[in-house]
Structures are given as C-alpha cells and as structure tokens.
Design goal:
This protein is mostly helical. The longest helix is centred in the first third of the chain and has 27 residues. Helix content is about 75%, strand content about 0%.
C-alpha cells in the first residue's frame, strides 16, 4: 500500500483523464450517430463529476475510513478562516473583470455587460451541479492536498492548474461545447492563475473544500456571464486567438507575480530542501518538480 501511495498523484490523474475522456468520446460518438445533442449533453455533464468521484474513491482506497472522514470534515466552513475565502473571491472577481477590460483596451469592439442576476444564477448552478461540487473533492480535496505535502504553494498551484486545464481538452474539439473555439494556451494560463488563487485560500483555510467550490463557482460564473453578454462568443474567441501571444505573455507575468508573492508569504523559513530564498525556490527545475510530485 505504501508503494501505491507514492504514486497516488499519477494514479489519480491517469484515472480521472481516462474515465472523463472516455465518456466525452462516447457522448460525441452517439451524437454523430443519431444527432441527439441532449444525450451528448447528459453524458458530458456526468463526466464533469469524475474528478470528485475519483478523488473520493481513491481517498477510500488509500486512506480507508479515516481518509474519508477527514475529506468530508473539510466541507465544514465554521472552523476555517472565512475571511480568506472572501478575499479570494474578490481577487478572482477583480482578475476576471480585468481580463475583459484588457481585451477591450486591446481593440475588441464590444463592451461587456454586468448582469448580477445572471452571475448569481451561474454561481448557484456551478456550485451545485456544475464544476464546483463535481470537481473540487478531486482537484483540491485529493490532488492539491497531496501535492502540497510534497511541494511549495507556488508550484502546487501551477501543477494542479495545468492538470485541471488539460482535463478539459476534449471539449475544445467538440462543436457546441463551452470551450469550443477558445485558445487552449489562454485557457491553460487562466486555469493556472485561478488555481493559484484557490491554492492560497485552500492553504489559509486548512484545506476547506467548500471555499474551493465557492471560488471555482465565482470564476466560472463571471467568465460565462460576461462572455455571453457579447453578441457572439465565437467572435470574442476569435479576437483572443488573434491576440493570443500578447495575452499569454501578460498572463505569464501574472503567474510569476502570484508565485513570488505566495512563496514569500508561505516560505519565509528554511524548507525541507534547504533552499532559503524565494528566487531560488521559483527557479528550481520545473521538470524535477513534476518528477518529484508523481513519485
């Protein structure tokens, strides 16, 4: 069992991708056969719960009753520092709205509209039946929890953000999906930024999964609501594709900034690898960290 635990991160990623992508492929195949988009939507919706389901299953497998009890205890918000969730939600909101202002300043010729009722509706939907509950017991409750035990907060947020973003990959190639037409590189950068913010709150609130769900819901609700306020989402995606390099450079700068700030906040003292400065921690070999995390 101990040997299996050493590979728990890799096992989780592999099984989550395998089951999710298989379901997406099955759904799309059935759609091409009988043109039943409703059935396709149902199967894809079910696949959205795979990260949490897999996180719960593997927690039970590796850590038995004690692990399951601990996992569900972290739903409790009353013993956590809720102020950090509020701070995180504000940071997420400022970041998301800023990205839309940025695209307008770069020449996108439409103005987004803020509809608070629409945002609240999306928030409730994501929190309950969307990516929140369906994903966060896995991405944060299992994966991030295990990575943080091996690595510093900056790397952990980036690593989980990459895994989280690439999990959506099939949807970029399926017409009608929310990701279809969106630049993959921008999606990855965006997921990393949101992941790093969630990681900060997760760390500060002692691994509270409910707060992670709330931040996930905030991000999705704002992006979806503001993007859908344009006359054409595909037109917006086209603009992102045309300005992809500039946007990616800006987002990388944001990632580096967040990474440095988090490293300074959480690693003021000597860590287990005897690396003393924030700059040294940030510049450690990225590929070494990936190898270290999955072994």
């Amino acid at each position: 069992m101990e040997n299996k635990k050493s590979h728990e991160i890799l096992i989780y990623i592999f099984l989550t991708y395998l089951v999710t992508w298989t379901l997406c492929g099955l759904g799309y195949f059935l759609y091409t056969v009988d043109n039943n988009y409703n059935l396709f939507g149902i199967i894809v919706s079910i696949s959205g719960f795979v990260p949490s389901i897999m996180g719960i299953i593997l927690t039970a497998y590796f850590y038995k009753d004690v692990g399951i009890t601990d996992l569900f205890k972290r739903i409790n918000i009353y013993k956590s520092h809720g102020i950090y969730c509020i701070i995180g939600m504000i940071i997420v909101a400022v970041y998301v709205v800023s990205t839309f202002f940025l695209t307008q300043s770069m020449g996108f010729n439409e103005t987004f509209k803020v509809n608070f009722f629409n945002i609240l509706s999306w928030f409730i939907m994501v929190f309950t039946i969307g990516g929140g509950i369906g994903e966060e017991f896995g991405w944060r409750g299992f994966l991030l929890d295990k990575v943080l035990k091996r690595q510093n907060i900056a790397f952990s947020g980036i690593f989980v953000g990459i895994v989280w973003s690439l999990w959506h990959l099939p949807l970029f190639f399926i017409p009608g999906s929310s990701q279809y037409g969106c630049p993959i590189a921008i999606h990855i950068m965006n997921a990393i930024i949101i992941s790093m913010i969630i990681t900060f709150v997760f760390k500060k609130t002692k691994g509270c999964i409910t707060f992670s769900i709330m931040l996930h819901a905030t991000s999705n609700a704002l992006f979806t609501s503001l993007a859908s306020s344009y006359s054409s989402t595909s037109k917006y995606y086209q603009f992102l594709n045309e300005n992809q390099i500039k946007l990616v450079i800006i987002m990388i700068a944001i990632i580096v900034f967040i990474g440095v700030v988090e490293t300074l906040l959480f690693n003021r003292h000597k860590d287990k690898l005897n690396i003393h400065t924030a700059s040294e921690k940030i510049t450690r070999s990225f590929f070494y960290n990936i190898y270290y995390n999955i072994h």
